[in-house]
């Protein structure tokens, strides 16, 4: 794209003034042919109101410098937080005044920061021909400008790479608290021309100024009198100074100083922060090593120097070490291996989204994911029973809880499930689960046996019916609910479906191909820790022995006392009636 963007952005020098007072640039606009340009704006709760207003002014000012038109530059704007919202698509407006009106009416979403979800939306929707993008055969450049102030709450590297592979040139603009590593993961190469970091929203105009390096202009820098500390960049009838990556332009607009990335206070380093040209880097004190998260530090791990034999995790403790197991599994007597909770009891019903948006190839990945869950459970009539329900515009029980008694039978039945397509009636599926799937007729064990009932909902989008009533009803019925979302799944719906706390019962993956990382969380959560089957005394290490036994005895004693009290009350009432009759 080098040399393709020839935009008259001289007006950005006035962006610190309110947009109403900005003057239109003098002289003719610079035409370079058509361009499809989409702005991807972060409107999460971390963007304060006055900061969002500054970003709004920036967009309006930038629009006034573009050669806007259906045959010139087409502009689209989307905003995102925990979800993505189209402000206006590429083909919506051909007049700058209509675009400005839509931007002024923009209301921030003020939720999370799902940047990866926004990039995926831009790639699949905003740059589609249906939204106004010109066909690939016309070879019109596609440019996305992402403006964000924080760290993404989802993965961005993979989806950004897919967008770039489709020919979308990405500029990543970070403001104040933005994570430099994430900006570099999103932007197109070369990074020093596509990654911009400004210290505050008030200085976002510096991003516009650096764009002037792409303008067609007479090279006034060649005269050698510019006085720029680093680079001189020509613009129409003028020039401006630009600093190398990792530096910011000073007030004199000529000298440069290194950016102190640690000074923003958002580096989260446990020990020390070191500012480099590429961004903040954490460093640990002597005798410690930096953990993979790049922020926290740990005493040098003795586990790396011995053959510890831990099945799951080795933890160094001074001059010794100990083995740990994941949540839901306990350490065996050898101190190294982890018990798989094979003696646990649970009735598990899986609600699988079979709507049209999932698509056939992804539905096969979902079935493989379900079978990976089956692999870590003790499937048997006395242990874990599994039922599967598929839903789209209707609900279909693929097999009930009581049908299969082995993991092999369950996995074979899962592979035989046929994709339904059509809509997404999640509320209808929840109702079916509550009213039918956990009934004794479907194979669920009686409530008197205290076997945990677990429901796991797997969905990739927003429900087309109300979920609130039956999501609440499921939890009132004692069903422990888990929600797994993929792609365009809505965070608020996942949280409403899941039991509390949501952090332990909600999982999300940006796409189907990367959802296997959710397995470890589900293993630790679903693996049962207590349960009773008829005639079985709980003595498994995975089950809560004393507590369940004590609760059972206490509840039995209370029930007996209640019955005795009712009988005594009835006798007293009878005696009172007899006395009254004698009088």
TrEMBL record:
Main location: secreted
Entry keyword annotation includes Transmembrane: no
SMART domains tied to this protein: EGF, EGF_CA, Matrilin_ccoil, VWA
Gene Ontology molecular function: calcium ion binding
GO cellular component: extracellular region; matrilin complex
Compartmental location: Secreted
The entry's keywords: Coiled coil, Disulfide bond, EGF-like domain, Glycoprotein, Repeat, Secreted, Signal
Function: Major component of the extracellular matrix of cartilage.
Name assigned to this protein: Matrilin-4
Organism, as annotated: Urocitellus parryii
Lineage: Eukaryota, Metazoa, Chordata, Craniata, Vertebrata
Gene: MATN4
């Amino acid at each position: 794209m080098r040399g393709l963007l020839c935009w008259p952005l001289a007006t950005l020098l006035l962006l610190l003034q309110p947009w109403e007072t900005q003057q239109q640039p003098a002289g003719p606009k610079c035409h370079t042919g058509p361009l499809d340009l989409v702005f991807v704006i972060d409107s999460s709760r971390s963007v304060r109101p006055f900061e969002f207003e500054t970003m709004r002014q920036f967009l309006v000012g930038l629009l006034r410098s573009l050669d806007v038109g259906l045959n010139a530059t087409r502009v689209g704007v989307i905003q995102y937080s925990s979800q993505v919202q189209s402000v206006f698509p590429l083909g919506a407006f051909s007049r700058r005044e209509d675009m400005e009106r839509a931007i002024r009416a923009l209301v921030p979403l003020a939720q999370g920061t799902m940047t990866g979800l926004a990039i995926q939306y831009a790639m699949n929707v905003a740059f589609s021909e249906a939204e106004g993008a010109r066909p690939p055969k016309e070879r019109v450049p596609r440019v996305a400008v992402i403006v964000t102030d924080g760290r993404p709450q989802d993965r961005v590297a993979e989806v950004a790479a897919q967008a770039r592979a489709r020919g979308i040139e990405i500029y990543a603009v970070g403001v104040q608290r933005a994570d430099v590593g994430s900006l570099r993961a999103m932007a197109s190469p070369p990074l020093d021309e596509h990654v911009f970091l400004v210290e505050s929203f008030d200085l976002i105009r510096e991003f516009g100024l650096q764009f002037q390096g792409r303008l067609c202009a007479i090279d006034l820098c060649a005269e050698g009198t510019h006085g720029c500390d680093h680079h001189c960049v020509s613009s129409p009838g003028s020039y401006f100074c630009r600093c190398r990556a990792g530096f910011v332009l000073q007030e004199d607009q000529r000298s440069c100083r290194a950016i102190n990335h640690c000074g923003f206070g958002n580096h989260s380093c446990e020990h020390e922060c070191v500012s480099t040209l590429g961004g903040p880097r954490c460093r640990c004190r002597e005798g410690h090593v930096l953990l993979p998260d790049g922020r926290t530090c740990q005493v040098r791990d003795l586990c790396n120097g011995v053959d510890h034999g831990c099945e799951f995790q080795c933890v160094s403790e001074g001059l010794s070490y100990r083995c740990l197991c994941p949540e839901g599994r306990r350490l065996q007597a050898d101190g190294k291996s982890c018990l798989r909770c094979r003696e646990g009891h649970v009735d598990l019903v899986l609600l699988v989204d079979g709507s049209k948006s999932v698509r056939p190839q992804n539905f096969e990945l979902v079935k493989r994911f379900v079978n990976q869950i089956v692999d870590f459970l003790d499937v048997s009539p006395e242990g874990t029973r599994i039922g599967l329900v598929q839903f789209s515009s209707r609900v279909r029980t693929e097999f009930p809880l009581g049908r299969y008694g082995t993991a092999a039978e369950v996995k074979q039945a899962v592979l035989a499930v046929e994709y339904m397509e059509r809509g997404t009636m999640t509320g209808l599926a929840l109702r079916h689960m509550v009213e039918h799937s956990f009934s004794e007729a479907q194979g669920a064990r009686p409530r008197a046996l205290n076997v945990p009932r677990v429901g796991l909902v797997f969905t990739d989008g927003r429900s087309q019916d109300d979920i609130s009533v039956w999501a609440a009803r499921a939890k009132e019925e004692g069903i422990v609910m888990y929600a797994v979302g993929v792609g365009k799944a809505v965070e608020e719906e996942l949280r409403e479906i899941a039991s509390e706390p949501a952090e332990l019962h909600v999982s999300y993956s940006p796409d189907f191909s990367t959802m296997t990382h959710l397995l470890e969380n589900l293993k630790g959560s679903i693996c049962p820790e207590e349960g009773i089957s008829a005639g079985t005394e709980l003595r498994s290490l995975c089950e809560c022995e004393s507590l369940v036994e004590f609760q059972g005895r206490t509840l039995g004693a209370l029930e007996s006392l209640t019955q005795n009290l009712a009988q005594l009350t009835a006798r007293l009432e009878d005696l009172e009636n007899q006395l009254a009759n004698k009088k």
